[in-house]
Design goal:
mainly alpha; 8 helices; elongated
């Protein structure tokens, strides 16, 4: 059995004397609420977004890489994967993806389509991206300025030549 408090009047006196500290400790400075607002809610929102939007951008769903709509999102995703893949080892390709992995991904997202169809789309997009890299290197080799391009130059390179910012930066660091 718990012992009774010897001096019950001490607690209210300490609480009054150290009111700011007491308030901080009692309310935890609303730390849990802050974490919920800053981390948990955005993560939940992104999860719902990814589930409802990103999962639908799948080749097996009939979407093809293009310059508009869902096709553009798919193209950017494939090219981001290629950029990352080639940054580590330029000999690697999306053709290196094992067929069972593609098949399992199609099944997981309940998509129609076959491995050959998906592999063909990936190979075609990889070929197009390789052409973009060659064109990008040519365009950037004519650039006389040193250092990173200005925002205006980056916008021009993207709108005129289809070279996204991260690709331009990567190609320029390759030259350095």
């Amino acid at each position: 059995m718990a012992k009774p408090i010897a001096k019950p009047a001490t607690a209210p006196r300490l609480q009054a004397r150290f009111a700011p500290l007491h308030h901080f400790l009692v309310n935890k400075w609303f730390f849990d609420e802050l974490i919920d607002f800053i981390v948990v809610r955005p993560a939940q929102w992104f999860g719902r977004f990814a589930e409802s939007v990103l999962e639908r951008v799948v080749i097996g769903d009939g979407v093809r890489p293009s310059n508009t709509g869902r096709g553009y999102v798919l193209r950017r995703l494939i090219r981001r994967a290629l950029t990352t893949l080639w940054r580590d080892d330029s000999s690697r390709t999306l053709g290196d993806l094992p067929g069972p992995l593609i098949e399992q991904t199609l099944e997981h997202f309940r998509q129609e389509g076959d491995v050959g169809q998906v592999s063909g789309v990936l190979r075609d997009e990889q070929r197009r991206f390789g052409e973009l890299l060659v064109r990008g290197r040519t365009v950037l080799s004519r650039r006389t300025a040193t250092g990173l391009p200005t925002e205006q130059e980056l916008r021009y390179l993207h709108e005129t030549h289809g070279l996204p910012r991260e690709l331009v930066v990567g190609l320029l660091s390759e030259r350095a």
